[in-house]
Amino acid sequence: MEAQRRFAMVAGEASGDLLAGLLLQGLRERWPGLTAMGIGGASMTHQGFEAWWPSDKLAVRGYIEVLPKFMEILGIRNRLKERLLTTDRPDIFIGVDAPDFNFDLEAALKADDIRTVHFVCPSFWAWRPKKVLKLRNSADHVLCLFPFEPELLARHGIAATYVGHPLASVIPLVPDRLAARRRLGVRDDETVVAILPGSRRSEVQYNARRFFDAALLMRRQRPDLRFVVPAVPALKDSIVAIALASGLDDVMVLDGRSHDALAACDVTLIASGTATLEAALFKRPMVIAYNMNRLSWHIMRRKQLQPWVGLPNILCRDFVVPELLQDAATPPALAQATLAWLDAPAQTAAVLARFTELHHSLRRDTAQLAADAIEKVLQG
Asked: Residue 326 contacts by C-beta under 8 Å, 6 or more apart in sequence?
């Protein structure tokens, strides 16, 4: 009988936790007795993961924003590395996204003969191209979400497998909009705008007030609009406070439930990130927006290699949906772009067709493909 497998994993923030939870579910089908430990969140712990630290400890985006937490995060990584190299050595380490945290950790583990897999190819083809060099020194194998990535990695001598995006199998090809509305208590004839200002505290800090000010402007033009806001539970109180400060006292703020909100809505105003891909898989028209620390913004803009920032546009290689970033993300501009979708049925139908095609391209048996690749890494 095969010995019980021990997997160590690190996932940062809510989107990484969600991906890792879906991956763990599939890995347990291959290795029913496996134990998994490290850094994770609610989706992972639901699959029996032992979280030594919560994933939200790593939920920081940007250059300047990370400075106040740098020493704490560095200390966590050093303690985790020491534990994995000594008392709790795993059979394999799987870093889920969070490249700034995981790459150096993976390199140290790999140097001490612990096999390493990185799940989610860093977007070196979109920005920060030097990341691919660190990845080559860190990971024995990369599990890729997008079909074009393995070939690009192979050019740099990096072994990789396209496993599809697990969310493409979780989210139905034809979402049940009416059922989602009933779960939320929303009438079938209401016009619903989903507002997603981000899953990190810094994102809420920079985006939420702009989004809610835009919602207030939308409400003045269309008093019958219904606003739904799925919130990471730890940030719900902050989001409610910002909504009230903006004059929106009837916005529906949910504990999570982003899939219900996206399935139910007519359009979404959404912060750039993984959530935009979820919105695309739900075939929803959207306005992608983002605001951050000004210095961080200028640093990131210099590293950008493509004209698009939002994942749906990057994957479609076109501005399928509008992007309003930094100074362009003013409340009047956000309101105007969001309301424009409600009067554009032809454009909405075209987006549905593009996103349906995208959904099919990302829909694979991710769990089995990932488990096959990981098993080969374990066998050397």
From this structure: 290, 291, 292, 294, 297
